[in-house]
Amino acid sequence: MTDRPSDRLPVAVDAMGGDDAPASIVEGARIAVEQFGVPVVLVGRPDELGDTGTIPVIAASEVVAMDAEPAASVRKLKDSSVVRGAEAVRDGVASSFLSAGNTGAAMAASLLRMGRIKGVSRPAIAVPFPVLGSTDTTLLDCGANADCQPEWLLQFAKMGTVYTRTRSGIEMPRVGVMTIGEEAGKGNALVKATCELFEQTDWAAECGATFVGNVEGRDLMTGVADVIVCDGFTGNIILKSLEGGIGGALEAIKAALRSTPEMAATADIVDPVLTPLFDALDPDQRGSAMLLGTRGVSMIAHGSSTSSAIANAIRTADEMVEAGIVANVRAAFAAD
Amino acid sequence: MTDRPSDRLPVAVDAMGGDDAPASIVEGARIAVEQFGVPVVLVGRPDELGDTGTIPVIAASEVVAMDAEPAASVRKLKDSSVVRGAEAVRDGVASSFLSAGNTGAAMAASLLRMGRIKGVSRPAIAVPFPVLGSTDTTLLDCGANADCQPEWLLQFAKMGTVYTRTRSGIEMPRVGVMTIGEEAGKGNALVKATCELFEQTDWAAECGATFVGNVEGRDLMTGVADVIVCDGFTGNIILKSLEGGIGGALEAIKAALRSTPEMAATADIVDPVLTPLFDALDPDQRGSAMLLGTRGVSMIAHGSSTSSAIANAIRTADEMVEAGIVANVRAAFAAD
Fold first, then answer.
1. Any bridge partners for residue A98, and if so which?
2. Which of A8, A150, B18, B257 has an alpha carbon within 20 to 30 A of B287's alpha carbon?
3. B126 pLDDT exceeds 80?
4. A219 to chain B, minimum CA–CA distance in Å?
5. Which residue in B217, B248, B269 is closest to A241 by CB distance?
6. Is the ipTM of this complex over 0.85?
């Protein structure tokens, strides 16, 4: 339990989105309420949620399917859980919104219902990647904008700086640009134009960042930067490649550790050391991507999130609200 | 030892390129000759190579530094090991060229000295990714062309098809396009234009491929496609991200397995099962990227390649020559 005031607004949680929804979502909400003391309101079809205990429900009769076309779904399904959840934030009924459902729909609903922060051209998805023995490195955009302009990457750099300072307390985050060679001038046309733009402005000094220049894919999980910017096509492919690659590697190793009776017999010694490491390494299990640039906190969890991943994401949403992330981003763009 | 004729041409190996060059390169060449029966000629500064035993040396007095600007270096350093190595293939003195040095310089030297296959607009780097329990999935382009046109991706698909058939014996390789959503129409502007182009032509039937459409980053190491095409910016970032992410994860796990006396005591049981798995999973250790589209076999090894990785890359170069990869690519483009 936390010391925070008990009258604070609840996190609105899309009960209908996710591979094991609504069961895993309702269970995650219960954990967040009981173990973390975070108030929650579930959004979905009341008669499908089972026993939600003391957790209130905002009724929403429609569901956006995981593979539905996002923008059209949000336009059409006005009584869907993603639309109602985003509206709860807009209307001051909830502090923030979390969905493990259709990512595009959650993004579109958040953007349309909460609105954009003034000065932000395009919201971006920020995803923290684990760095062993250090704070996370945040990559953005991880999929909101497939094709980007240099000006947007500059805005991502600013939003990422504010996010990292707010989330991790790093006063002067180190910001890099993802590209394919460490030397200046290496990259595709977008990166080259972005680096030129970065040099023409005082953005880093203005928002309290240290610009570290070009970084490569291998730098993502080694802690050379706190924030790395890229277009949403590149970011999403990095995210999915690492989820698949590291997730697959860990699963194969876990299976091998049980593959013979002799291996299984080592479990008492091996598991206590390896399990926390596996958890720390698996980007798939961390699942607290955040949409930055909207006038309300919108968190995006992985479709395969377990109830404990959902509970952690709810806690993160609550923490980001308490830390004033929206006001902080707004302040960074106020001068623009 | 193989049954191949002993009069076949040697693989020209850049002795000066690589983090531990020339020592690890010379040692790798020795392994390739003695254990795999592959003839090798080393290229570099004779007085820096130490004892090369029976392995002949092509003298080259200059070295392109790992971080030098590729095109300018190749233009200027005409007696460098990468230029002389590529020339050995052009001149019929060597069957193929392998370098673990400056990738851009090895590429530029191969392209300039060997020339392009007619019909190929841009050579591309093909990298096989491990799929546990199955054949590799080949990703291209992994870095030769940062900005691409749809027509080039179509050519990459054809070259990847020929490469996979030649290397793995798969008659009808499954070819996908790397993007950020499985549904048709998902992706950035390049992917959308590429998919339209793919639908307008009979390329798959003509070159004996099965087009499987869009694939995502998480599909790279799960075997849903044999060949995946993307622009070189995206491909290089995927490659480096997975090298860093999986490599880092494996290192951390290896360290944990030795972190306490109790853990170390399990080594006799755990190592025989996990070590082969670690080797199979680590993209960093496989290191046999191939430049496709040049009129000669050009292989690119990782800068950090061990001598055994170099030996494997030499064997792969020899196998690709024997399998007729250049003639096969040429035939696929002959109709264009």
1. A13, A299
2. B257
3. yes
4. 7
5. B217
6. yes
